[in-house]
Inverse folding.
């Protein structure tokens, strides 16, 4: 059976006058081979493709990896590739420079002295920008789990509960409902800590009258979800309600505007302009969103400096926020599938302010 993803890599190699691509990123290896283990290397050439792993994954890789020559080695992966002459006949080979340490690069230079190594960053990512039906189905499953988790964790949030306890419950619930793992460590930020966009859950106890931001996701068969909601515990001050209304208005405006064909900075600008017009512009301190798939943060980028054109078929997050030092913050995030004429919101959790 033809592996269209591998064939796409081969076409790109030909366009760039490369004889091979050495792939070391595990998410990219999974994208190309379906291998879900923790140690592997792939080499794709014009006429063959090879997969290398260690003995722990001998049986697993035999069932997951099809259409690749397969090597099981007790030595280093690069050393095994050199021993089997897998770059024989290659003058120019690309490697994933974002995923290779300097020490690994030196090892490659030593093991393949006759090969000119070219750093490449986008060969696999470019093909993975547009999700196929199977990928979207897996992401929908992950998102449904996170939506269900959000619904259930609301029952546990009350004054006196610590932030890290909420994070632990989220992790438990997502696994209970079918996730393979968390997509990332959950962000739980209450009260003044809400001004930290990537706050780690602390021992702080949630208090009545505070906003609480919950940012979490899960992974199903390699594909991720990413959701953020901010909720109120008891009656909150007028300023906090205003912050929430500003972020919600900007988020809804960006969702309404989102479609394939836009530049990333254009979509970011929709939310940024709305927040600025409402007097909170200096408190929106990050980009609007990012691509989502095998990685939690992947292309495309939605930011004020992104010149990348968004493609129909990409899944992105739309997550504007307002963060006021010493006071708190609000963020609302959905996962959306871009189409030629708009977008489909995959996240189903309510966005109106929930007060517990």
């Amino acid at each position: 059976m033809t592996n269209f993803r591998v064939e796409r890599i081969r076409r790109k190699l030909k366009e760039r006058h490369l004889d091979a691509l050495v792939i070391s990123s595990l998410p990219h290896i999974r994208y190309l081979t379906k291998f879900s283990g923790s140690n592997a290397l792939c080499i794709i050439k014009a006429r063959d493709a090879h997969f290398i792993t260690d003995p722990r994954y001998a049986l697993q890789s035999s069932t997951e990896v099809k259409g690749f020559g397969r090597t099981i080695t007790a030595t280093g992966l690069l050393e095994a590739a050199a021993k089997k002459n897998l770059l024989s006949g290659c003058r120019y080979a690309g490697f994933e420079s974002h995923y290779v340490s300097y020490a690994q690069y030196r090892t490659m230079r030593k093991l393949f002295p006759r090969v000119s190594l070219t750093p490449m960053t986008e060969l696999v990512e470019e093909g993975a920008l547009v999700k196929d039906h199977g990928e979207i189905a897996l992401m929908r499953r992950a998102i449904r789990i996170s939506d269900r988790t959000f619904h259930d964790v609301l029952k546990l949030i009350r004054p006196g509960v610590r932030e890290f306890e909420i994070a632990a419950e989220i992790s438990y619930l997502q696994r209970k409902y079918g996730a393979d793992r968390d997509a990332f460590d959950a962000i739980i930020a209450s009260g003044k800590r809400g001004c930290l966009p990537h706050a780690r859950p602390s021992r702080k106890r949630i208090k009545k009258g505070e906003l609480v931001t919950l940012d979490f996701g899960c992974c199903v068969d390699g594909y991720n979800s990413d959701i953020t909601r901010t909720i109120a515990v008891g009656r909150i001050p007028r300023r906090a309600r205003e912050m929430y209304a500003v972020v919600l208005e900007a988020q809804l405006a960006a969702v309404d505007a989102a479609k394939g064909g836009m530049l990333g900075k254009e979509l970011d600008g929709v939310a940024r302009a709305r927040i600025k017009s409402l007097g909170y512009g200096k408190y929106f301190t990050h980009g609007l969103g990012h691509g989502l798939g095998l990685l939690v943060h992947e292309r495309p980028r939605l930011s004020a400096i992104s010149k990348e054109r968004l493609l129909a078929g990409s899944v992105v997050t739309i997550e504007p926020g307002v963060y006021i030092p010493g006071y708190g913050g609000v963020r609302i995030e959905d996962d959306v599938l871009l189409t030629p004429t708009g977008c489909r919101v995959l996240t189903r959790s309510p966005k109106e302010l929930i007060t517990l």
Residues 70 and 188 are 43 Å apart (CA to CA).
